């Protein structure tokens, strides 16, 4: 058994087969919809939620896990014999999950002083957060020490990036997650905004006149950052598998791919991106 256990949350959007293979433990975000509280990817799944969201008159709200949610998972791992845990979270500038986990960390320190629990703010989201959890889990299963895993995570944080596009910024705006991309709100309906994240905040990266134009811009953006280096890349979408496959074909014609896969965003993230979103989360291989 690995000496280090890896915990993240549902918004990392890691495909279920990878979660199982790498023994990554997830904590569910919450979606509050018409008086009911749904646990992300537990009480509600991607397809059914997106079908509802596309015609929803008002958006549901989302909430991060509370300290008790994290504490429950940490204690279950300790009971299984783990004394070293790394807990990996989306940007603290867009969610309270990191602070919830830090509160749970303090509780663990009081109740289980022999356990070492490290809580990480990735300053990112989606499969950028997911890549960090994936590589941490691979290292843990390979017998790498917790200190070495933490060092790897710190190297990945500044170079793991995303770029995505959607038909509208309505969902990000209504969900209060628009950040530095507000200036794109006034664009015409036929303009596809490109957004990313810098220092933990959503930012505008440009715009294109069509979907294929956006895909070409995204490919140029990624290629400009990684150059001739090999890259690990996740193609992410919200109910747009055909679109994300087109994006994949455009990007892979330009890049030296070390590893890639397609993943669908979790419902809690789809609340803010909206149906039809496609993008990439990537980092250059060391």
Structural class: alpha/beta
Helical stretch tally = 10
- Strand tally is 13
Instruction: Give the helices and strands as they follow along the chain.
Output: EHEEEHEHEHEHHEHEEHEHEHE
The number of domains is: 2
* Name of the CATH first level of the largest domain: Alpha Beta
In percent, how helical is the residue content? 25-40%
CATH topology of the largest domain: Hypothetical Protein Tm841, Chain: A,domain 3
Q: Using only CA atoms, what is the Rg?
A: 18 Å
Can you tell me the overall shape? globular
Mind telling me which CATH architecture of the largest domain this is? 2-Layer Sandwich
Taken as a percent bin, the fraction of beta residues is 25-35%
Write down the overall mean pLDDT. 91
Walkthrough of the structure:
The protein is an alpha/beta fold and 286 residues long. It folds into two domains: 4-29 and 64-156, Rossmann fold; 161-284, Hypothetical Protein Tm841, Chain: A,domain 3 (2-Layer Sandwich), CATH 3.30.1180.10. It is built from ten helices and 13 strands. It has helices spanning 16-22, 46-53, 67-79, 97-111, 126-141, 146-156, 170-174, 211-226, 241-252, 267-273, and strands at residues 4-9, 24-27, 30-33, 36-39, 61-63, 84-89, 116-121, 161-165, 192-198, 201-208, 230-237, 256-264, 278-284. The strands form three sheets. The protein has a six-stranded mixed β-sheet, with helices on both faces. Strands 2-1-6-7 form a four-stranded parallel β-sheet, sandwiched between helices. Helix 3 crosses helix 4 (97-111) and helix 5 runs antiparallel to helix 6. The longest helix is centred in the middle third of the chain and has 16 residues, at 126-141. 50% of the residues are buried. The model has no long low-confidence stretch (mean pLDDT 91).
């Amino acid at each position: 058994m690995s000496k280090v256990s890896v915990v993240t949350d549902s918004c990392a959007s890691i495909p279920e087969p990878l979660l199982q293979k790498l023994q990554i433990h997830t904590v569910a975000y919450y979606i509050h919809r018409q008086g009911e509280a749904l646990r992300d990817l537990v009480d509600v799944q991607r397809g059914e939620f997106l079908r509802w969201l596309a015609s929803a008159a008002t958006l549901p709200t989302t909430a991060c896990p509370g300290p008790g949610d994290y504490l429950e998972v940490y204690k279950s791992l300790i009971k299984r014999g783990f004394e070293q845990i790394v807990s990996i979270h989306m940007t603290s500038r867009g969610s309270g999950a990191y602070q919830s986990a830090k509160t749970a960390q303090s509780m663990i320190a009081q109740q289980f002083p022999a356990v070492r629990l490290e809580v990480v703010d990735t300053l990112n989201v989606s499969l950028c957060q997911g890549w960090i959890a994936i590589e941490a889990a691979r290292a843990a299963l390979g017998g790498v020490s917790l200190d070495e895993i933490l060092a790897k995570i710190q190297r990945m944080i500044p170079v793991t990036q995303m770029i995505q596009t959607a038909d509208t910024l309505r969902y990000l705006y209504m969900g209060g997650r628009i950040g530095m991309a507000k200036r794109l709100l006034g664009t015409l309906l036929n303009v596809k905004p490109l957004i990313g994240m810098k220092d933990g905040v959503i930012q505008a990266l440009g715009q294109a006149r069509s979907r294929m134009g956006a895909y070409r811009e995204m490919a140029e953006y990624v290629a400009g950052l990684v150059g001739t280096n090999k890259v690990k890349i996740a193609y992410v979408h919200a109910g747009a598998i055909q679109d994300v496959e087109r994006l994949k074909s455009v990007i892979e014609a330009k890049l030296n791919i070390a590893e890639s896969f397609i993943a669908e965003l979790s419902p809690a993230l789809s609340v803010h991106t909206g149906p039809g979103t496609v993008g990439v989360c990537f980092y250059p291989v060391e």
